[in-house]
Amino acid sequence: MIQEATVVEASMLTAHRDERPKFLKRFWRSGMTKLGGFLLLALLLFSFVGPLLYRKSAINPHILSTDIGPNAQFPLGTDSLGHNVLSQLMVGGQSSIEVGFASAIVAMLFGTFYGMISGMVGGWVDTILMRIVDILLAIPSIFILLFLDVAFQPNILVMILVLASTAWLGVSRLVRGEAMTIKNQLYVESALALGIGRFRIMLRYVLPNIIGTVLVAATFQVADAILSMAGLSFLGLGLPPPTPNWGGMLSDGMNYMFQNSWWLIYPPGLCILIVQVSINLIGDGLRNAIETRER
Amino acid sequence: MIAYISRRILEAIPTVLGVTILSFIMIHVVPGNPIRVLLGTHYTVERAAELTKTLGLDKPLYVQYFVWLGDLLQGNFGQSYTYDKPVVSLMLQALPHTIIIVVLAVLLAHLFAVFLGSVQAYFENTKFDQFVTVINYFFYSMPTFWLGIILVIIFSVDLPWLPSSGIVNMQLSNPGFGDWAKHLVLPIASLFIVSVAGWARYMRSSMREALLQDYVRTARMKGAKEFHVIFVHALRNSILPLITLLGLSLPALLSGALFIEEIFNYPGMGLLYWDAVNARDYPIIMGITVFIGLVTVLGNLLADILYAFVDPRISY
Question: Does the predicted interface ipTM exceed a cut of 0.90?
């Protein structure tokens, strides 16, 4: 009996796998993905390889040359404390990208699990689980994040959890909706009839079918998390000093906007913008590729 | 219809209650003791015990919650730690300022986004459409706080046209309506720009679908003018998703207002919240959180009900 079930299951899975190369081709071929991927790669190189080539400290201040414009020694000038802006941009990118991806992954895993349970089990469990999501979604995430940030004074790990604490909500709602639809599909019913356990069904039948939706949502979550972290730093919270952050650099630059210290305002803002554009482009490319498959 | 509306309102009640429970829990998991903050330098063990008793903090948590909820229902949000004023009066002071910028920005942004998205859909895939799409993408991805700073640099520093902070010019002896209006321009413009970028994308795809429908072809065959076809026949249906979006985008707008108010030192709810967070003024934090949760739930409710009203195809 068990062997029989496995055979049926395997043939069902290969039916899905056949479509994968086409989907990937469509994804890579889209101009959006290419531009987004190129921008993201450039930013990754800038943040992670840059400091290896440009070996100037981002943390040690040059107290004799504070707030000076770009010159030969400092390509992007220094801030009010004499920090090298170019080095700070590079190092600031590292924490932004790491935290952004990590919190999106945590949110994706938890949100998928939560949403799948809610959708598959249904009934009162579903009602309660989704009500909790409704309540948490009723308060704009930045207000919750601000509060959590003040309450827990985060290091990088806590920061990841804080950002994930609001990011999983959207994912769980999406997954729940998809799971509800898939639950009533014929292949799930036949798997149930074959006596395959619920957990196995979730993992082998439902998950492969919603993974596309989840990936798209997770991609946008990366952008959101990076923006939220920059926003928190901009409001004077976020990761504690001396870790530089683009949002914190921007809020520092804001104090000098009347002195026309443009090198403190445009570079960090531009970095945030490029991260947002690149990840949004990749997310849109991914979504287009998936939607075409479903059509 | 009445049955539907009352069912939706009933469904919203647990969510609102949940928001109050959430805010209550949030305050109580926080490390730090409000008694210590309240007494400050006057702190002694006896005084602390006395104040704990008068504030009811020695009672079990669930009793405290119901007392707090009862006060809340009577409009009593407690006393601020830092301002020595009731939280309600502080919120009522700040609220009109936020309402003005958010409502004006939303109305203007909606009108413009509907227009822009419709025109884009009509000229789909032309140079114009592609250009506007790129610009929209740019502003859509732009952090609100960076946009605010750039607007200040352009319009307050480089071109000294508009004030960059506050709501009145302190140096004028009699600042009139004109002065006040000038202070509103940049905060509203920041919110306007980011909102238009998002909504125009929705409007474009919604109008694109509408333009392919049979009734649009029928209208054209009747000889209706193109302007009439787009802005009367197609618009009526394509605008529906944007109505829902209006209610759903309230949280995003309030978050945007938080940053805008901080940049422009604009005395609204966002600035009040931010100051309270920095001063660990928990009654204000709790009050604003509940209020915003309530507004969001109401926004969603209103969106659902409006949608049912404007779209006769939907029956409940």
Answer: no
